[in-house]
Amino acid sequence: MKVGIPNGLLNYKYSAFLEKFFSELGADIVRSPDTNKTILDEGVKNCVNEACLPIKIFHGHVNAIKDNCDLMVIPRIMQLSEHEFICPKFCGLPEMIINSIPNMPKVTMVPIYATSKEKLYKWIVSTGSLITTNKKRIRDAYDKALIAQDEYEIGIKSDGYKLNIALIGHPYNIYDKFVNMNLVKKLNKLGVGIITEEFIDEASIADKTTELFKRPFWTFAKNAYGASTYLAENKKINGIVYISSFACGIDSVVIDLIKQKVKDFPFLVLKVDEHTGESGFDTRIEAFVDMLERK
Predict the structure, then answer these.
(1) What does DSSP say about strands 267-272 and 77-79: parallel, antiparallel, or unpaired?
(2) pLDDT for residue 96
(3) Rounded distance, CA 263 to CA 278, Å?
């Protein structure tokens, strides 16, 4: 069986797990290419207008490989932590895909609750059974996939720079070079080092979020707020750059919360959608770095 893994959304963080699991079951992995103009255009064409840029791009990745696979892995991720949830668009992602893109192969539909290995195993069994009925083989593949994910390194931490900023945002905005127009490379070229939330321990993030009037409902909001405020208040960075998708409801809330907390700390918000121009993007980055140097 050929299993398609679109190169978008949280597959940036969990691709090692998915590829190892399905390959151990004997499937051939079909990955979509890195995001490009064609994938963006196809995603916009095959997705509802109201969706954010990452969701549109994911549609484009699915469309790029749908004719070459027997099963498409659509991450209907509900929870990664107890009492917290993922963006609501993930909840209905399989339905969005199959009702927007024609001639789809079989799609994974079962929701993913990854708050523990035991809960995640429910998705593993139901999805693995689409390929094999051998439960021992599914369990062994799951164990090996967990190891592969533990060994998979993700995150950015630049050393040796005079200026350093926290790069905050949803993982798929930070790690998709097409979406953020090679933001990391641009900042490094301007003499700015970068640190992302993956290098902040969970205890520090959780400690900062206890200052809020209520526990964050969204995992992305918790991570963004906790990491950025921790780094700013402990003077580990010179500024914060938040890369956000236009019309993202979660970002609109967490950005205001961060601004209220860090007060006059240097904070740049970069909004992206399918119409964002690179020249204006570059100008804002350069101006922000100039300000950090003067400060």
Answers:
(1) unpaired
(2) 92
(3) 29
**pLDDT per residue over 209-249, tens digit each?**
888 888 888 888 899 999 999 999 999 999 999 998 887 87
Tokens found for residue 167: 């790069």
Let me know: does 197 contact 243? Beta carbons within 8 Å.
Answer: no
Would you state the pLDDT for residue 153?
A: 84
- Residue 82 predicted with pLDDT over 90: no
Please report the domains of the chain, with CATH numbers, ordered by start residue: 2-151 (3.40.50), 163-294 (3.40.50.11900)
φ and ψ at 96, to 5 degrees?
-60, -45
Two structure tokens written together for 94: 């399989």
